[in-house]
Structure formats: structure tokens, C-alpha cells
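Hi F.,

I've been meaning to write this up properly since the lab meeting, where we talked about keeping a consistent format for the predictions we share between groups. The idea is simple: the sequence comes first, exactly as it goes in, then the C-alpha cells exactly as they come out, then a line or two of notes. No screenshots and no reformatting. I'm using this chain as the first example so we have something concrete to point to.
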Amino acid sequence: MKKTFLITSIILAFCCFSCNDELLDSNIVVQDPTNNSGGNNGGGNGNGGGNSTTTLSAYSLDSTSNVPIFGEITINSDFIISNNVVLSANVETVAFGTSVNGVSTITRDNNGKIVQVETTSGTTVSNRTTITYSGDNISQIMYEDLEDATENYTYTFAYSGTTVTRTNAPADESAVFTFNSNSQLISKESFSGTNSTQLETLTYSGGNCISSTVSGSNPGNNTFSYDAFTNPLQTAFNDQYLLSIFESENNEQVATLIATLHGTNNWTGIQTNQGNVNFTITYDANNKITARDSSFDLGDGVVISQSEVFTYQ
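Output, unedited:
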């Protein structure tokens, strides 16, 4: 399936979407990530440290993937941010010697909830995602590929206690998301029919996802490390927290997405069964992250490199 408003790479493709995105059930309360109490964060101690003025005006992520047969694929994403809210993104994709430019725009209702994400190429709308709510609860996500209708899908959501079940009836697929009392995702189990195909479990410390374990398809163990400074992406992408999780495909792992966008501190490295990767990070004089570079060798000739740039108001 294709996704809307993508940040691509960081091991697996991960998708992006006001603090109004609360779950209907009172057992799951979406926490304002700008109001953390600190503690051990898995890679440094403290409550964010550095200058507290970490309001982004722009964020860019450039990724290059070298894949056998397909060759080099480059995706450059520039996010437009105002008042600590992502408004749109300009995305350039270069593959097979062809460059395609697109713009993804977010529409919010009067209460600040995201109700539509639309992508245009030139003057043509290529795809559209529509989000429907029951109260403050996401009840449906409908994706329309206006160039290839076979890519269309509709997710519906049912809530019970601390779990949310997502169903894609035509594909006979579902996923069960379980949250803890801090609204942190602690497991995602995917099903084909009644058969469990993948289970991802996540653990947290100090507002950061510090480890994940995956069984079923693509099994493995991951440990994440962080610095002691404030992650500016957490606030800018705060209203996309549930959408980014709920839009993830059945075989997609979400721990890297949570580590990047929704952690209290800046993600600095990952330890996997295949090896360890430490990122190269640049800070300004106030300990605000200004750049982050990383490279992942996924084996079988697949190498992904990425460069992030953080610009502040």
C-alpha cells in the first residue's frame, strides 16, 4: 500500500501526521509530550536539557537508498512548520533517472484535528487520505490513490479499554494496538484472517522507546539510545502521533517512527541483531540538535543513508 505524507527510510518507511487527537476510552489519554518529568531516558539522564526554546520553523530529511536491481533512490523531504505545527511537505523523489516533485498538505478542522492529507504532483492531486472521527476518536482512515485505484483502502477502528483494533475488511487483515496508561504504544499485533503474522512489543523509559522485540515476520531485537537534550520533533509532530501509528502497514514496525518523532530526547543510535549504528549529530551552543546523519547496511546489498537538518525560529 502507498502512504500519504511520508518520511521515508530510518530502516523502515514511516509516515507522518493539536493535542486534540485523544482516544475516546478514558483508559487511554494522549499525553502532551512537552510536559515530561524527565528521568532515565535510555541514553542520557535529565529532562531534556539545553535551551528550552526548541520551536522548529523547518525540518528536512534527505534519504538515499541503494538497492540491487533498482539502483539508487533518493527522497528529499522538506517540512513546512508554523507555530510548532507541521502544515505541509515538499517531497522530491529521484528514481530510475526520473525526478518527481510532490506537495503534501494537511487540512485540520476548527478543533485542530487532522481531517485530510492531500498530495499533488504539479497541479494534479495524486492521492488523498481522509480521517473521520467519533468524538475525539479516530474511527476511519480512507486512502484514495487517484492514479491507481487498486491501492485504495479503508481502515476502521474499534476501541476497548487500552486496546484499539484496526480492520481492513476487504483484505481480511487487522491489527491490535495496545497502549499503557501514558498513551505509549506497548504492542502491535498484526493478523491475516485469524492468523497472527507479526507481534512488536515496545518498552519505555523517561519518555523514550528504549527497546523493541519483533516476532513472526522480520523477527529481531532492537535497543535505542538517546542524548539528554530536547527532541524538537516531538512537539512539531505531536498531533500526528496516533495517525502515524494507525496508518502503519501490517508488516511495518513502528518503534523507529516513535524513536524519531515521539521521543522526549534525540535518538542517537540503534543496536540490532545485525550490528550497531551510532548517528553523527551536530548541536548548537544551546545543545539544540541542528543536524543528524546516519547510514544503515541492511544486508543483501541494501544500504540506506540519511541526513536531517533542523531549523529553529
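Notes:
The chain has one domain: 6-312.
The chain has three helices and 21 strands.

If this format works for you, I'll send the rest the same way.

G.
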